């Protein structure tokens, strides 16, 4: 996975990696994860245990903001296979100097990038193109008993979603608490 750039943020932990595509008359090829390159870039050594696809047919489909609590907390490595998304994370590590702060960015299948989100963040995204396909790796298996969330459009997280009305949203995503009511299970990173 030849990494062409590593972008960090004012919130410690999340990282955006741009990747190299090799093309010829057949099309292109791109490594999306390689343990050696990951290590050489100085990124945390994660034990990826599960890969997921999420398909969304409609523009404005909003998923999140989700997390899994310890002992099944998940780091995620997110990429868009088809379409575009507005991706958002919120730091929910209690005691963190950036608690409640968010990072928002656009990910697209046109740009070979992966977004690394460590455990301790609520994560969600909104589709900007029809028939969007998102692929992500996680560091722990799905454990519904540890599932949690943060209200996607709550005032506390201050996320400026591109589409705020007529979104496609699951019933459970309507019912998560706002940041001010969240009892976070995460301690700040060491």
Structural summary, described in words:
One of its GO terms (molecular function) is dTDP-4-dehydrorhamnose 3,5-epimerase activity. Pfam families: dTDP_sugar_isom. Homodimer. By secondary structure, this protein is mainly beta. Helices cover 5% and strands 41% of the residues. The chain has two helices and 14 strands. The protein has helices at residues 35-40, 171-174; strands spanning 3-8, 15-19, 22-24, 27-29, 50-56, 61-68, 76-82, 84-91, 102-108, 113-117, 121-127, 132-138, 147-149, 168-169. A six-stranded antiparallel β-sheet has the order 1-2-10-7-12-5, with no helix packed on it. Strands 6, 8, 9, 11, 13 and 14 form a six-stranded mixed β-sheet that branches. A hairpin with a 6-residue loop joins strand 1 (3-8) and strand 2 (15-19). The radius of gyration is 16 Å and the shape is globular. The two termini are 28 Å apart.
Descriptors for this entry?
single chain; 190 residues; mainly beta; six-stranded antiparallel beta sheet; six-stranded mixed beta sheet; 5% helix
Helices, strands, pairings?
Elements (H helix, E strand, L loop, with lengths): L2 E6 L6 E5 L2 E3 L2 E3 L5 H6 L9 E7 L4 E8 L7 E7 L1 E8 L10 E7 L4 E5 L3 E7 L4 E7 L8 E3 L18 E2 L1 H4 L16
Parallel strand pairs: 6-14
Antiparallel strand pairs: 1-2, 2-10, 3-4, 5-12, 6-11, 6-13, 7-10, 7-12, 8-9, 8-11
Work out the radius of gyration: 16 Å
Oligomer: single chain
> How many extended strands?
14
Envelope shape:
globular
Measure the end-to-end span.
Answer: 28 Å
Largest sheet: 6 strands, antiparallel
Helix-strand string: EEEEHEEEEEEEEEEH
Helix content: under 10%
Count of DSSP H/I helices: 2
Derived from helix and strand composition plus strand pairing, the structural class reads mainly beta
- Average pLDDT, rounded to a whole number, is 93
- Classify the beta-strand content into a percent band: 35-45%
Main sheet strand line-up: 1-2-10-7-12-5
As residue ranges, the low-confidence spans are none
Subunit structure: Homodimer.
Function: Catalyzes the epimerization of the C3' and C5'positions of dTDP-6-deoxy-D-xylo-4-hexulose, forming dTDP-6-deoxy-L-lyxo-4-hexulose.
Protein name: dTDP-4-dehydrorhamnose 3,5-epimerase
Organism: Henriciella marina
